[in-house]
Every structure is written in C-alpha cells, then in structure tokens.
Amino acid sequence: MKLSYCKHAGWMLALMSVMFFGSCSNEVDPVVKKDAEGDAATLPAGLTVSVFGGGPIYQNRTVTIPELKASGFTEVVVWNIAVSTAGDLNFNGEFPVASNGTYIGGSMYPNFASDLQSLKTGTTSVNRVTLSIGSSNIGDFQHIRDLINAQGTGSTSILYRNFQALKAATGADAIDLDDENCYDLSTMVQFCVMLGNLGYNVALCPYTNSNFWTSVATQVNNQRPGTIDQVHLQCYAGGAGNSPCNWNFGGIPVHGSRWSGSTSSVQSQFTTWKNTCGTTGGWMWLYDEWVGNGMAAQYATAIRNGLSGTTPTTGVKFFQHSNYGGTATSFIPKGNYTLSQLQAYGFVNDWASSMQVPSGWTVILYQHDNFGGTSWTFTANNSNFANTAGLNDQVSSVRIQ
C-alpha cells in the first residue's frame, strides 16, 4: 500500500532538513533522451518507465524538475491529490490546487502548473504527466462517492469543474486512482468516464481486490473505449506478493513496481516479469527518497534494461585485486555514488585495488562515504591502487563523469 499523506508528512519533515523542504495510449513513441551514461539513447517503442513523486516535486522544483526531465523516466506521477467532502482538491493535505471550479495552486506554488507542463518540453525523457488520487487510510473515494451520488458527474458538478480547471492549468495527461478502502463500483465507473470526457486518460493503481479493479476497467472502457490505458500495480508493502503476470486486464498493460532496492535487483525483477509475461512497463516508488542523488536515472535505466533485455556494456569497473584480478563489479555508469549505491553494482567498502575507466571519462574516488576524506582523480585505467599513496583498499564513494 502507498502511505497516506498524513504518514507521508512525517517523514517529509525529516527530508526537509536535508533538502530545504523540500494518460496517452500505451503505444508510446520512441523517446530520445540522455541516459545514465550521459549519451543519447532511445527507449524502445511501447515501453513505459514511470516514477511516483510527492511534495519535493513542487517544494524543491529547481532540483526536481531538471532531474526528472533528464532521468529517463517516461511518466511522472505526481502524488497525491486529496479530495475533500466539498470537492476541493489539494496535494498531500497541504497544497490547495482547485476549488469552486477554479485553479488556485498558484497562490502557494506559483510555478507548479508551468513546471508540470515543462516536464514534457525541451530536452526531456518525459512524455506523460499523471496526477494520483488516493492512498491508505484516507477518505478520498468516499468523498468522491458521496459527491457523485449527490451531484452526478455532469458539467455543473463540482468534481467535473475542479478537474476541468486542474487539467486546463497543468496540462496533465492522466489521473491515477488508488482506492484502498471504498471500492464503490458504480461511482468509480462514473468518475472514470467523467475524467475521460475531460480529456484525461486513467491509470488504475491496485494492490488488492482484483475483481473490483477488473470490473472497473471493463465497464469504463465499454462505455468510453481507451479511457483506462494503464495499470500501476503495487508490488511492495501490502502488495508485495503481486506480479503483473497474475493480474489480467485484457488488453490493458499491467506495470509492476519496486520500492527502492539495488538497481541490479530492480533490473532482475523486471527482466523476470518481461520474460514471464511480456510486461511492457514498470515504475518506482518513491522519488522523494532519492531526490538529487543520481538514483532517478539509475532506477530508470534499471527498469529500461530489464524490460528491453539489455545490460550496460560500458562503464567503470572496479576489481578486488591489482592488475584487474579477483572479484569485479558490474559496469558502473556516470553518476555520483555513495557506498550503498556502489554496493548495488557489487562494490565492497575499502576493497578495490584496480579499476578500468572508459576513454574520455573522469573518476573521482573518495576515502569516505558521502564524498568525504581524501580524494583521487583519474582519467584512465589504474592497474594497481597501491602505487598511489593511501588509495589501496580505501575507496568508499565515487563520482564518475
């Protein structure tokens, strides 16, 4: 299950101290972008690589918007919209965005709407911006149910007018629906059809109750074909046992997910799902936990490689012994790596004794984790760290440029 915005707010406060507080058809065109190695790359047609992110997207915009555009993710899901009993919309219980049929987000975060639009413009990997509703232990869908039962979903209803205003301001492509405690089929179907009529696509985001969700998809797309075009399946926390290979939505693609973990484990899981049932998309939860540390591009690359059946064939490689002997890491692409991030590639603390560096690359090695202590810079292979004073078996973090 995804955390409620109330739970989200607790760990967000901790994040603030270090960050200054911080849908279209599934027939996706190839996306030309900058990948984790910094070279132009093309995402194979039909693959969707998504990331969910919360408050930092608007609270720390000077970092998050450029990073997301360069990340390799094709879909950014902004989490989460709360729907009040009156039909007002806000993000995470603290950022009002629509009320009485008017977009009001500019009063608190004046750049939010234009930032969402900019995610898909210029040099970018992003081709879809989605806004997510719902989570655990909150009443969004009860409020939606009650409002629809009272007002319907016509052009004069508050839900219609507020979501119309939100789309006009932000240009969002889709709405993601994560109902975890209401499960009212009739009003959910009406809500999805209304969103489709407003120009949104709809992505479902289940972790359980498959019969409900497949009924929603069938009824909505029977009434308005193509409205529901993705399923963001939660495969962590309460949905940890889920697999996209075990959820059948007919022709609607089901995209599995990971919550953190090593990039090698993420790639391996998506390779397994791809080989088992041909899944064509995947997503990561939660961008808020790795803003600005290079992991966005690394996770996007891991999903892409898992879905496309490729592995990196270039990068820096570290070896346990001199002269490139003993255990070796996998290829490590350009980026900044703390110890925990290096370990995802098979690196061991205070262990490396030689390394291979691609032509034209620069590697800065650090004695301590988090880029602390003595540093050494190299632009070529080094067959024996012992020849450099203090370097052998001392590396704990790395910058690769």
From TrEMBL:
Residues 361-401 form the Beta/gamma crystallin 'Greek key' domain. InterPro entries: Beta/gamma_crystallin, G_crystallin-like. The keyword Zinc does not apply. Keywords: Repeat, Signal. Residues 1-22 form the signal peptide. Gene3D superfamilies: Crystallins (2.60.20.10). The keyword Signal applies. Belongs to the beta/gamma-crystallin family. This is Beta/gamma crystallin 'Greek key' domain-containing protein. The lineage of its organism: Bacteria, Pseudomonadati, Bacteroidota, Cytophagia, Cytophagales.
